[in-house]
Amino acid sequence: MADKPAAGTEVPAVRLTSITKSFGAIVACDHVDLTLHRGRIHGILGENGAGKSTLMKVLIGLVLPDGGTIEVDGEPCQIRDPHDAAERGIGMVHQHFSLVNPLTVWENVMLGDTGRFDAAAARRRVAEISERYGLGVDADARVGDLTAGVRQRVEIIKCLRRDPSILIFDEPTSVLTPAESDRLFEVLRQAVYEENRAVALVSHKLDEILHATDEVTIMRTGAVVDRMVTAEADAPILARAMVGREVSLRSEASALGLVAELAGEGADEGAEAETEGRTPVLRLRGVTARGPDGRVSLDGLSLDVFSHEVVGVAGVEGNGQTALTDLLSSLLAVEAGAVEVDGAPVEPNRPGAMARAGVAVIPEDRHASGCVLDMTVAENLFLVDLNRIASRGFFDPALMRREAGRLISEFEIQTAGPDAPFWSLSGGNQQRVVLARELSYAPKVLVAAQPTHGLDVGAIEWMTSRLRAVADSGVGVLLISSELEEILQLSDRIAVLFRGRVIGEMSRGEVDLEELGLLMGGAGAAEPVPA
Amino acid sequence: MSSPEPPSAPSRLHEAAVALAMYLGCIVVALFISAVIVSATGGSWQAVFSALLDGSLRAQGRWGETIGIAIPLVVVALGTAINSRAGLVNIGQEGQLMMGAAFAAYVGVRMAGFGPLAVVCLLLAGILGGAIWAGIASGLLYWRRVPEVLTTLLLITVASQATGYGLKVEWLLLAPFREDRSVRNQVSEQLADDTRLPRLDLWGNDFPISAVAVVIMAAVVLVLFRRSVWGFRMKMLGRNSRTAQRAGVSSVRYGTWAMLISGGCAGLAGAFMFSGGDFGNYRFTPGFSNNIGWEGLLVALVARQHPVGIVVMAFSFAGLRAGSGFLAATGVEREISQVVQALLVLALLVPPALLFIRERRRALAATRART
Predict the structure, then answer these.
(1) Same domain, A46 and A80
(2) Closest by Cβ to A361, choosing from B246, B251, B366
(3) CATH number at residue A51
(4) CA distance A490 to A80
(5) Cα–chain-centroid distance for residue B210?
(6) Is the domain of B284 the same as that of B308?
(7) For residue A442, what are the CA distances in angstroms to A359, A421, A469, A473, A474?
(8) For chain B, what is the domain count?
(9) Half-sphere exposure of A264 toward its Cβ, with a 13 Å CA cutoff?
């Protein structure tokens, strides 16, 4: 089983040729070729939105391609749904768990099976797989009691139970600790080298690709930009290929110009000198917090934001961005650390404390913490500071309507009127309501988390120019975004977030895209950045 | 009745007209089905409707009776509107009302001779009793995350057992033994004349003065909901608790207040019933609550938590209750007359459900139109 035939002679396990898939105007995969061989781990590297997930969904039958051909073991075929894929021996371990918490491990593994049901056999099978790969999963444990790492192993068992010859892992380490990741890769290597399976490992983490794969395909904006043997690559090469010349799906040309301008600028030292000795409007020191699953979401995070500047928080999604926004929305209980606004300490997690101290927030998910869908536009404009129009605990609805009307015209919000229900607005206009409200109480800090997510081009431009204007008016802006282009376009200073801490900072003048890409991949956290 | 409004702009007047039309339509349908059923079983539907009308409004002194029944229904429903606004589900009004009445009885009976002071004290005791009972549920909710739906419901049973026990011992509620009473029942001492709520008399219809208090309460709640910062924050909490916390609304503090007020209202309803005279003849007995708690909850649901709607609906439900007393005299079978009553309740329940579905549909349509 262990003798590997030479790459050229054998029939590849999977050959995708010229796969194309577009969603509306966005081309997610543009004539992508990919070949997976048995006995090898193939890395697929790219930023969020590069098209890697779509490509894998084509292979597993979740997405039907617009064009291109699929060959499995040299045989051309069509994969219409995951069932088809399973019959051809293709299995996928998804990024997000699809487990039922109250059920036990073996029950979860059996979910979706049809026909006769043999509990004893299922338990035996789970134990057997767990034993063979050293997964250490108890078939009778309740899934809800398990840690994220073990849950993922349950997903792996679900996949391996069907004995697939082709395995796809989609961002498998996004929810794992470093130790758990190492453990996962051991299992992977065993499955590949000893049992001659083919593995596709989808990731945006450089370390992972370098450590775990044999060959790598790098994708950017839906197309393959490079292919290499991993042994011949190193972190800077991969980073350059992945981040490259910062091209965006939205505005290629302008982004290209912008990056060139940024790289050559270096004129911000005056601004830098100004901040010396000043009190930051927002100061975070050693903030540590845990998510509901017990995983550390913020790990000693420290960050300063001064007035008049935009600080961009770059980083791959899932490295603490959500927790950081929650912290500044008084929604996160912290274990350690301090938050100061304009020099005065603020108690985290005390309802409304951040808002009262002057921290305005445009949340990532505005429906969760930025608005009340079932209230009117006017009411949504006064959620945070109704007291501005109230006296002795009472307010005049007519005054509220008038003030709301003023904000509606000032922020060009398209709505039937102040009494229109908030849910009747479009996403861009909802975002305008949130921004209008957050700015209406003269904040000291504005936190904008993924402020352009899900907005159309016009709305994005509007939002971007507004954020810049807000910073120019003297507010400290903290821009948390997974869109590197957005960060580069707006920020005076960039902080890179990795696993809940800031692992690097650079001013706009000294941005080195290669280094930035490396930092985002976490290369700087574990080992010194290669020169 | 429907006003001619442009269909493109559904104004508030238009909405109100639609709602009113729905109610009228549903009641007409219910009356029609009732008439068919009564006729089919050999009764006279004219006699049935006439009896209902007589019992609730037409006969001498009957609308005073209806008001007397409506009073506790309004108070319970107003409390329910407050906890619903905060997003909490209190379905234990029946128990909270029972505790309120028991507290009021304990204090009222012992304060015979103190006059108006005693009335105030027994009403406060009623509020306290109901608030404690709802407070247990909110305490368990915020301390141990026990769902308030379950605790409030189960506490009804506890309340009925606890008050039952109180009615077995003299140091709590049981009336002292007297020679002239042969059978010793579970019954409290009767409230003394001077500690009863005064009764008003209008054209031969008499009802307790608490009717005035109840109308004022409804107005106060209306203002709190429409114009107060507190009501605004309650609403925010009920509709999006994360947004509320970010904006400075503590779910524990506001939620606890909502539950205490809701329970306090149910308790006050119990105290009104005990000291008003329309229920139990100023004596507290097992089963004193007589489903008023449940019916008040229903009133709040049917009125969709709107204070004005609550007053109207409470009067309708009270009228049905008062009117049903006259049905026995019509010679129609009891089962049949109960079906008639149930149909009329259903007629009041259907429009709010239809309005709710209509709003959801619109919300969904708007969401779809956006994506």
Answers:
(1) yes
(2) B246
(3) 3.40.50.300
(4) 43
(5) 14
(6) yes
(7) 9, 25, 14, 10, 10
(8) 2
(9) 6
- Which residue from B246, B366, B370 is facing A329, i.e. has the nearest CB? B246
Highest mean pLDDT: which range of A210-219, A522-531, B322-331:
A210-219
Same domain, A390 and A488: yes
Kindly state whether residues A287 and A236 are assigned to the same domain. Answer: no
Q: What is the 3-state secondary structure (H, E, C) of B3-38?
A: CCCCCCCCCHHHHHHHHHHHHHHHHHHHHHHHHHHH
Span B344-363, average pLDDT = 84
Of B232, B240, B245, the CB nearest to A351: B245
Whole-angstrom distance, CA of residue B352 vs CA of residue B304: 7
Q: Note whether A301 and A498 are within 8 A (CB).
A: no
Residue A129 lies in a domain: no
Tokens of A472: 């120019």
Cβ of B246 within 8 Å of Cβ of A372? The answer is no
Domain membership of residue A232 (yes or no) is yes
Domain membership of residue B127 as a residue range: 60-325
Range of the structural domain that residue A318 is part of: 253-525
> Angle of helix B45-53 relative to helix B12-40, nearest 10 degrees?
130
Confidence tier at B56 by pLDDT (50, 70, 90): confident
- Let me know whether A268 and A372 are in one domain: yes
C-alpha to C-alpha distances, B90 to B83, B144, B155, B271, B317, nearest whole angstrom: 7, 17, 11, 19, 20
- pLDDT of residue A251 exceeding 50, the answer is no
The identity of residue A514, as a single letter, is E
CB contact under 8 A, A369 and B227: no
The answer to whether position A191 is within a domain reads no
Contacts of A369 in chain B (CB under 8 A): 240, 242-243, 245-246
* A160-189 mean pLDDT: 77
Please report, for chain A, how many H helices and E strands are present, in that order: 20, 22
- The per-residue pLDDT of chain B, averaged, comes to 87
pTM, 2 dp: 0.70
Q: Are residues A481 and A447 in the same domain?
A: yes
On whether the CB atoms of residues A436 and A407 are closer than 8 A, the answer is: yes
Contact of A424 with chain B, judged by CB distance below 8 Å, is answered with yes
The answer to whether A170 and A140 are in contact (CB under 8 A) is: no
Residues A463 and A499 in one domain: yes
Q: Do B235 and A371 touch (CB under 8 A)?
A: no
Residues A213 and A262 in one domain: no
- Say if residue B296 is in the same domain as residue B243: yes
Distances (CA, A) of A214 to A72, A173, B274, B331: 20, 18, 84, 92
- Helix ranges restricted to H, A337-490: 353-357, 366-369, 377-381, 397-410, 427-440, 457-472, 484-490
Rounded Cα distance, B321 and B69, in Å: 8
Q: For residue A67, what are its two tokens? A: 């064009």
Residue with tokens 């709305």, as numbered in its chain = A459
A366 and A493 in a common domain:
yes
Q: How many domains does chain A have?
A: 2
Residue with tokens 């089963």: B287
Please report whether residue A379 resides in a domain.
yes
Distance (Å, rounded) from C-alpha A444 to C-alpha A358? Answer: 5
